[in-house]
Amino acid sequence: MSSAQADDVRDAAAGPMLQVSALTVEYAMDWGQVRAVDGVSFDLGAGEFVGIVGESGCGKSTLLFAIAQLLSPPAAVTGGSVVFKGRDMVRLTSRALSAMRWKDMSVVMQSAMNALNPVKSIGAQFRDAMRAHGSSSATDIGARSAEVLRMVGIDPVHLKSYPHQLSGGMRQRSMIAMALLFTPDLVIMDEPTSALDVVAQRSLMVQIKELQQQLGFAIIFVTHDMSLVSHFSDRLMVMYAGQMAEFGVTRRIFGSPLHPYSVGLMEAFPSIRGPRAPLTGIQGRPPDLARPPAGCRFFPRCQKAGARCEQERPELYDVDGVAVRCFLYADGGTSGD
Amino acid sequence: MTMMGASAGLGQQAPAAGGPPQRARAQALGRMFRAVRSNRKATAGSIMLAIFVLVALFPGVISRKDPSAEVYGRSLNPSLGHLLGTTAYGQDLFAQTVWGARQSLIIALTVGLLTTVLAVLIGVAAAYLGGIWDGVLSMLTDVLLVIPLFPLLIVIAAYARNGGTLVLITVLTLTEWSFGARQLRSQALSLRSRDFLEAARVRGERPLYIIIVEIIPTMTSLIVAVFLSSALYALLFASSLQFIGLGDPNSLSWGTMLYWAENNEALQTGQYLWAVAPGLCIAALGAAFALLNYAFDEIGNPALRPVRRIRVKRTS
Amino acid sequence: MTEPTPQPLLRTDGLTKHFKIGNTLSRRILHAVDDVDLTVGEREIVALAGESGSGKSTIARLIARIYRPTRGEIYFRGNPLSHLRSRADLLRYGGDVPMVFQDPFSSINPVYRVSHGILRGLMLHRRELGRGERQAEARRVLDEVGLTPAEDVLQRFPHELSGGQRQRLGFAQALAMRPKLILADEPVSMLDVSIRVGLLNLMTQLRDRQGVSILYITHDIASARYVADRLVIMYAGRIAETGPTEAVLAMPLHPYTQLLLSAVPDPRAPLAVGAESDKGEPPRVIDPTPGCRFRWRCPLAVEECHRRTPELRILGPAHSAACHVAKAGAPAPSEVTA
User: Fold this and answer.
1) How far is the C-alpha of B110 from the C-alpha of C274, rounded, in Å?
2) What is the mean pLDDT of chain C?
3) Is the N end or the C end of chain C the one with fewer CB atoms within 10 Å?
4) Are the C-beta atoms of B230 and B179 separated by less than 8 Å?
5) Average pLDDT, stretch A85-95?
6) Which of A55, A198, A254 sits opposite C263 (nearest CB)?
7) Chain B to chain C, count of Cβ pairs less than 8 Å apart?
């Protein structure tokens, strides 16, 4: 057997369900090559809920698309690997990827109106998805479609409805139902609630969490709204300028954020409970990724910057199980990338 | 003109252009030059168009001979003295081709300009005014769009037979503006709900001001593209009308050359160059317009630009 | 806290806006705004909060005179808007009540420099200024909103500014006209979280330093709480509850307000028990029947709610709710933890 196959077998024997190692994604722009995701590594176990948060331009959506192998030119993966169930997706052929899509891994997009076909009924789209990935018996398809719709709290009579006839919340729920057709092991979600109002958002999050506990799939959830995932995710990754700034158990990060960016973010949310305190936000803008700075990417905006920060790039340091990319934690922790 | 370098599709967010602010005016001009230079179609089209413009401006520099003088030997083959040979009337073909550029180019550019002005006025007014005005103007546009253009042109041109080139220009302008008007109206409509227009309205600006100062400058790419495609069609239609004799056969342009070539059965009698030379020039000038047209479409709409692919240099 | 002034800066009386939808065969009426009485005083920030379809943006556009009311009247400094006829009057109103828009990427004309919008506003509304004075004034408003160095920023193009900077520019353009009341239509919704706070602070600064009132339209209750003196909660085109911000949050009277507050995620607090069964379906207000529009989702609905549309009742100091069953002094469910 070839060495690649031997690698695969060895990987499959041990290790978490998803292993992203030093993943790097670049865009070929007119003015140069831009590294939108720079060396991100993390693991995901079965049934885990990982939230990826960050602001615009931090690379979280690009990271998500890279994991799902949905990047198109001018973007491409230029480094690292995404090992899912023992196989490196970056090196898989499109046929192998196709076989894996929807059965093992599915994707929920940001805007259902963009992802759903406006001229086909919901039922027809479920049928297309099921036929594309295996099932062909009409009764099987019908039964399963009704079943997933019930799971997300929609009356199966809506299989006949068109997307524009459903409300925003119902559309998002049907996207999630479609993602669950084959009960995949991993569901990737790109800001599925951003188009919804706050009550619908809350309801959808609760529903997602319930489904996860019921069916046992893992979730990678990308959002710009930290508070949204604060009660639902097991672990949280804070991204800044294409890199992982902080990664650890959610409650730890909310309870005592370590990276100055995470601290700044936490303090930028006005609260409706508790005293009405003045907030400051974070001054400045994220760096231009076409010309990344020599040192720490957060340096120009950091209140706690030190001597090393301008010239040296911090690695990820471990602080009690939380990974932080900041020199403040360099000594007294082990360096692990 | 805005220059956003963004990638479309799948909701990917490409990184925005950063960089320190330079002298803003130099930067704007620099962007335009960079746009033309980096876009291969624009470069090719500009060069070709420039060549034809130079030929039209200084024909005497390129060909010393008088194009209408029927003094040379008839139907001569190409030689050093007559680069393309002579016509059946003894005129120097090369001189004719060179001097004919002037009229063909003038017709194309004039009609292009006039149709664009009409299209902008009618299209943008229809979109901005809305209501009944939009209904009336759109109906007018649609009627002209639906009527088969070439037969209409033939009928009108035949009717106004003795007017010559001026009539040709008028006829072409009056029938061609509807194509551009439709496109411009669509774009103006899509702009209409843009917040900066509402902001101008709320600020208290008058409608005419908003149309001229706020809307039209944001449509420059499309307006230039409309001009180029109008010029292209004007060139082709004018040449066609002249070919069938509805222009002024005594004027000198590529279309009239084709007319005389056809009259004298040039292709059947082996005088190929008489038909091929003007024909090729029409095609080349048309191609120049078309290339520039595509280029301005791409400049105006980043989604149409060719997408770069990364040469994947694996870093691990 | 502000004292109620004898004549409020802005007052609406029974403000109503209906849109006709459908074709001539089946003409239906969309009730975007129904019977809204709201006031904004001097030096006050009033938050108009609600979800999509609540009518909040329509109210802003009615006040900005982008739409004409179907019924009702808007009074600015005691004068009804319908009496404004001459171009001079309309222009003056436009300068007194400018609007700041939601989308930083489409609210500024990309073709012109930053100076363009500000100078146009000055030319239209402050004719008494000469050329040099206009330039000075443009620099002053940019300084006021924190876009410095002003001289440099004036020469830039909009695409060179970030989203947050563009929104500040929107406020600067409004300030140039010496406004009394700024209509801010979701000015921070499209900005990153770390940038929002800066803009929110700018708004309170404008109120304190320039004495400008702001009508802040938003769907984000938390930001409304952060800046607003008074809160107006909209549901389905009608006012559900209104009162001083802290009072409404401490003691939400209307069941919709209670639902809204329980759904707001707050990382610093444990997950509040709310009506999880409520899927957040927005109301459809086409040809509504009499009765409370919230009755389909309301856990407290009684028969009266289906028969009669509730009016705003005063249930606390300057605190009213439009609900048949709301009682003064009831504790907020968020304080009752499971």
Assistant:
1) 70
2) 88
3) C
4) yes
5) 87
6) A198
7) 68
**Interface partners of A (3+ CB pairs, < 8 Å)?**
B, C
Phi/psi at C256 (5° precision):
-70, -40
Q: Which residues of A touch B10 (CB under 8 A)?
A: 65, 70, 72
With an 8 Å Cβ cutoff, is C115 touching chain B?
no
What are C75-120's pLDDT values in tens digits? 999 999 999 989 999 999 999 999 999 988 888 998 899 999 999 9
**Whole-structure pTM value:** 0.83
Residues of A in contact with C334 (CB under 8 A): 273
Q: Which of A90, A68, A66 is nearest to A179 (CA)?
A: A68
Interface test with B, best of A23, A25, A31, A111 (most B CBs within 10 A): A31
First to last CA, chain C: 34
Residues 26-85 of B with CB under 8 A from C: 28
In terms of phi and psi (left: phi > 0; alpha: psi -120 to 50; beta: otherwise), the region of C215 is: beta
Residue with token string 């990724």: A289
Measured CA to CA in angstroms, residue C243 lies from C102, C260, C313 at distances of: 25, 16, 11
Cα distances (Å, whole numbers) of residue A134 to A97, A102, A128, A190, B212: 14, 10, 10, 25, 58
* Contact at CB, A203 and C279, closer than 8 angstroms: yes
Provide the percentage of residues in chain A whose pLDDT is more than 90. 40
What is the pLDDT, as a whole number, of residue B32?
61
B17 pLDDT higher than 50: no
Residue in A36, A71, A109 closest to B15 by CB: A36
Task: Kindly tell me if the per-residue pLDDT of B4 is higher than 50.
Answer: no
Residues A116-131 have pLDDT tens digits of 888 999 999 999 988 8
Contacts of B256 (CB under 8 A, 6+ apart): B100, B242, B247, B248, B249, B250
